[in-house]
Design goal:
two-stranded antiparallel sheet
Length: 259
Amino acid sequence: MNKVEICGVNTSRLPVLSSAKMKELFLAKQAGDTTAREKLVNGNLRLVLSVIQRFTNRGENVDDLFQVGCIGLMKAIDNFDLGQNVKFSTYAVPMIIGEIRRYLRDNNPIRVSRSLRDVAYKALQVRDTLISRLGREPSVKEISQELKTPEEEVVYALDAIQEPISLFEPVYHDGGDPIYVMDQVKDEKGEDSAWEQELTISESMSKLSEREQAIIRMRFFEGKTQMEVAQEIGISQAQVSRLEKAALRHMRKDMLVEA
């Protein structure tokens, strides 16, 4: 990644767009300004650079990864909804990662049957469409209904092309605390009493701010993802991550004192 120029782009001179300028360009794009999309792409190429750094240890050509990442960026720009209270970078980074992962799976030496791969790629396309339509990550059931394919077949197909990753692998970093894969995963045990039995949580939660209480309740009792929490309370996913970690720190400290 010591290259300054990637695919003919001088990375040291890439522009950085302010939030106000981003909104202005998205509104211009919606109004039919044909140059606004190009400005949005050029103004967000740093997102692509930040993502492809994660994949450089695989021996892949950096120029190829950059071009594939740009495809993900353009898809994100075309599908982004200003009406959703989500930062563009939070929305775009997973789409860029997804595009690169699809490219790497296509070049994976492990053979997956053509029919299984077709089901998986159709499921991924449907997933992207549903994310744009619903403003959230769709369930397997919703994807299978859209595809008119049994849930089990969708899961099997996606598993067949999925490359295993660590739950602690960072997917985005905005200069503060990184967002990890585990932060994107829904807590399926959030509705049972395991957390409450393990910790004397009620008293500890009462000492948190209202926003921190809401985040802990939605994350660990309602089993929502950080993206879902961010959309519900109107802040970025990175802010949810920081507030969640701070709240858990305070609760653990409080319970250690009580013990």
